[in-house]
Structures are given as structure tokens and as C-alpha cells.
Amino acid sequence: MHEKYDLIGTNYNTTRKADPYIFSRLLNLLNPSKNGMYLDIGCGTGNYTKEFDKKGYRFIGIDPSLEMLNKAKKGDNKVKWEIGKAETLNLPNNSIDGIVASLTLHHWSSLDKGFASLRKVLRSNGNLIIFTASPKQMQGYWLHHYFPKMLQDSMIQMPSFEEIKTNLNKNGLTIVNTEKYFIKPDLEDLFLYSGKHNPKLYFESKVRHGISSFSSLSNALEVEKGLKSLEKDIASGNINDIIKNYENTDGDYLFLVVKTID
Question: Which of 21, 81, 114, 135 could cross-link with 108 by S-S, CB 3.0 to 4.6 Å?
């Protein structure tokens, strides 16, 4: 992962920006206090971390990529940036009042070790807010029609809801609330399914570069072939039928509110 995001991080902020709606949900679900200390694990270039900082909340941003953290450190902010991983945190026990883990679980080497580490540093009344996508949800992405191998590879590395739940419970944590997230047309953080309503987004190389599935997992020939097919379907209007065939009520991503088990 370190090498992957050192490569992606070069121009990451071009397309990966804090989305106002997603941030509003993270803020609401975390429910932070100005007196607390919080952790953004797998913070990347710190786009969401900095939004919390702007509102006066104290945050530590941790990521395994030095390239990402170098980007995060730029600008005026009071965030404490540290290189590291969820599985091997170098923080005192019971020192963190709440944790945000956004689109990061699929990059961990071990959910068990990651959650065990987070549980040690999280105070008993703190929230852990996870933003992720389950393989079941990803089955509903129309991207399967054009990039089947890429999506299959992405789903393999994405932990299921049951895997997450089991590993949380094993480490004294429990899910107390789930909230489905459906991609909005004005989404500003251009991650994997950001083009749900705007397929033309995927023609932009800078957008694809900021998405790990396209930049690291995908087969170049499949992407080239898929984009040509997508272009033809947009021109003919067939894309509308394809998108409709993938409509579902499972949500595209998922917010999880996690608390410690007393």
C-alpha cells in the first residue's frame, strides 16, 4: 500500500477533495467536542482531516504514505501528521476521543489487528466512524459492464459487512448504526463510483489516476477497451439502459457508527 499511494499521491488532490455532504455526515456521526483529541486513520492527503481542523477540532492524521502526508502538511492547519498504519499505531492507550476511517479498510493488512489497535487508543465513550463499501453494494455498480476484471479485483480486497462486524466484535467494538450512502450528482470527492451519474468522468485520466482501482488494480487493455465501449454507449444512448439495469436499494457506500462494548 505504501508504494501504491506514494504513486497515486503525486496528483491526488486534483480530483480527491473533501465532499461537503460526506463531511457533514462524518461530522454529525462523530459528534466531536472541541476539548477532545481525534484520529483520522488512513487520512491520505488530509482533505477531510483539514475540514475538521477548520472547525476547531483537534486531530491526528495518520497514513502509511509519505507522499500523501507531505501533501497533507501543506497549508495552514494545526493537525498533527504522522506516518503509520492502523495495525501498528504509536499512540497511548485511551488517548483518542473518536476516530474516522474513510475508504481505508480495504487497504489494511488485517482487520483484526487494525481494530485491536484502534480499540486500545479509543476511549470508552468515543465513536469510530467508518465510511466504506461492501462487496454486495459494489455488485450494483454499472462499472461491471465495462471493467469486469477491475471490479472483481476491487471487490476481492473489500471486506464484507460481516467480516467488519465479526472483527469489530472480536476486539470489543460493536456497530450501533448503519447509514447507506447513494452517490450524489454533485459529489466532489471523485472516488471509484463517483461517475455513477456522470459516466464521462471516467474519460479523464486525472480522475482515473486518483482512484486506486483504476491506477493500481486495473488491466490497461481492459480499461482501454471498456472506455471505448462506454464512449459508444454514451453516444448511442445505450448507457441509460445499462445504468437502469444496475439500479438498486443497497446503497453505493456505507457509514458505520461503532462504539466500544462495555
Answer: 114
Helix (H) or strand (E) holding 209: helix 205-209
pLDDT tens digits, one per residue of 119-143: 999 999 999 999 999 999 999 999 9
The SS3 of residue 255 is strand
Secondary structure class of 207 (helix, strand, coil): helix
3-class state of residue 196 by DSSP: coil
* Segments making up each domain of the chain, as ranges: 2-260
Architecture of domain 2-260 in this structure: 3-Layer(aba) Sandwich (3.40)
59 DSSP β-pair partners: 38
| Beta carbons of 193 and 181 less than 8 angstroms apart | no
- Give the C-alpha separation, 162 to 78, whole Å: 37
The residues facing 129 across adjacent strands are 100, 257
Spatial distance between the Cα atoms of 204 and 196, rounded to a whole number of angstroms: 14
Q: Which residues pair with 41 in a beta bridge?
A: 62
Cα 112 to Cα 48, 87, 168, 225, distances in angstroms: 25, 8, 8, 38
Q: Match 471516467 to its residue by C-alpha cell.
A: 202
Would you say 56 and 78 are in contact if contact means Cβ atoms under 8 Å apart? no
For residue 247, give the 3-state DSSP assignment. Answer: coil
Taking alpha carbons only, the member of 1, 12, 14 closest to residue 68 is: 12
